[in-house]
Amino acid sequence: MSAARRLARVLADLGPRYLPFADAATKELPLGRLLRLSLFQVTVGMAAVLLIGTLNRVMIVELDVPAWIVAVMLALPLLAAPFRALVGFRSDTHRSVLGWRRVPYLWFGTLLQFGGFAIMPFALLILSGDTTGPIVIGQVAAALAFVLVGAGLHTTQTVGLALATDLAPAHARPKVVALLCAMLLAGMMASAVVFGLALHDFSAIRLIQVIQGAALATLILNGIALWKQEPRDTSRKSVPARRFAEAWEAYAAQPQARRRLIATGLGTAGFSMQDILLEPYGGQILHLPVAATTALTALLAVGGGIGLLTAARWLNRGGDPFRVAAAGAVVGIAAFSAVVFAAPLGSGGLFACGVALIGLGGGLFAHGTLT
């Protein structure tokens, strides 16, 4: 056997062992096409960093917007979350003359996200009172911007994941979903670094440039992601319609389906409640600059990536997904304790450690519950 063939065999054995997502690609969904499709997760991660990370801190600390208004604004995108099941169902049963089910929803989700980002910086400046216009206009416009971005990212992510599972064979779907989650974290890490560097010397003009740059990047990356991904099938227009209630009843009839949903909802809520607090906490309590608090989101994503990789290896060895999720919850308790005690101890290092552990616990919990 030649040296080249031996090296190829070693690399083939090394990939699945140390890179759990290396074998997510299949003949039906090659790695290049899968990575291109995963770009929609990058834009979702970018939007999450901008909303719950950068803008959260900037609105409270730099723009002096009352914290309760910021909390309301950041909660508005979550209004679209309960409709993800309906959006996914509608894309499942969509009947189109062009033969597409997923592409129309992906495209309109992208346009919603783009439109929200386009008006957001000017709405925030009016909201902060830094202009001559009435603040109420800024409040209404900012609320509209956050709702549009929230509806767009939830629609894009839901339908994008559905399209990925359509294209991947059944045996590869868990690894494909895990890879898409990893790409979400990669997008969060990259965006946090870029936003932190761009806003190191904060100004209103720089804020406008950053948000509008995010809008343009969303349009371009999502366009590349969905280009020639879904095959056209004009026979779908003749498929009889199915009601959402019927689909829900079929799912709820599965053993322990409701119990799993409740556990997933409570755990996800626990790990998500920190979204609105960490950046202002670091800025106002620990007096960290914008770049440092934005970097916390990258640290959170790094911890989440480690959690996903750990969970993947654990499950590949025959681990119980319920134990994986429970381990994530235990890590989360320790993580939030570290964040709480960082203030009285005045320790930025303890705070950063707590943030990383939140990501680690969240990654374990998310992978366990999804599995």
What are the secondary-structure elements, in order, as H or E? Answer: HHHHHHHHHHHHHHH
Q: How many β strands by DSSP? A: 0
Please state the overall shape, judged from the principal axes of the Cα atoms. globular
Report the radius of gyration as a whole number of Å: 21 Å
| CATH class designation of the largest domain | Mainly Alpha
The CATH topology of the largest domain is Growth Hormone, Chain: A
**Gap between N and C termini:** 40 Å
Integer count of domains: 2
> Which residue ranges are poorly predicted, with pLDDT under 50 across at least 5 consecutive positions?
none
What's the structural blueprint in terms of helices and strands?
Blueprint: H1 3-18, H2 31-37, H3 39-62, H4 67-75, H5 84-93, H6 103-127, H7 135-167, H8 173-198, H9 204-226, H10 244-252, H11 257-272, H12 278-285, H13 290-316, H14 321-345, H15 348-370
